[in-house]
TrEMBL record:
PANTHER family: PROTEIN BLI-3. Residues 10-156 form the General stress protein FMN-binding split barrel domain. This is Pyridoxamine 5'-phosphate oxidase family protein.
Length: 166
């Protein structure tokens, strides 16, 4: 493995780590008129390759829009880090996986449990991601670094990478 491959692998691992630390995402997709819409979604799982899983209702406007145009962006913000994932969404009918990912939190939002045929998985296969991570990784440390930068006239140096996930 070359140094570049190792670096890419480390960047991919960093993206997955940041995604696993964040539970709520903003899913952006195109509605039938071509307008961008963003909806909050609870991330149910993140595979080692960055594949994201959400649970939604088959008849919802967002699922119907994803069937028509599968291009999406999923964004996260958590503890001084931000991740933007560009990819393709697909509606998956997998009751076993749905049961595995179902939780009491999901029960609060969707009716009928994983056995309800109206509840489906939305699987996002990532093409690329970009992440930003502030030094220190927490909101308090990030704010402290911001104040320090303002007082000293320096610039906050964080971690920012674009990662090809194909």
């Amino acid at each position: 493995m070359s140094a570049h491959d190792q670096s890419t692998s480390e960047q991919e691992q960093r993206v997955v780590e940041l995604l696993k630390d964040s539970k709520v995402a903003m899913l952006t997709y195109l509605d039938p008129s071509g307008k961008l819409l963003s909806k909050p979604m609870a991330t149910q799982d993140v595979d080692f390759d960055g594949t994201l899983y959400f649970i939604a209702e088959r008849g919802s406007d967002k699922v119907q829009a994803l069937v028509a145009d599968s291009r999406v962006n999923v964004s996260y913000s958590n503890n001084g880090s931000w991740v933007s994932v560009a990819g393709t969404a697909s509606v998956v009918n997998d009751e076993t996986k749905l049961k595995e990912l179902w939780s009491s939190f999901t029960d609060s939002w969707l009716e009928g449990g994983p056995e309800n045929p109206e509840n489906v998985l939305v699987e996002v296969t990532p093409d690329s991601a970009e992440y930003w991570s502030a030094p220190g990784g927490s909101t308090i440390i990030s704010l402290t670094n911001l104040v320090k930068a303002k007082l000293t006239g320096s610039r906050i140096e964080g971690d920012n990478e674009q990662v090809d996930l194909r």
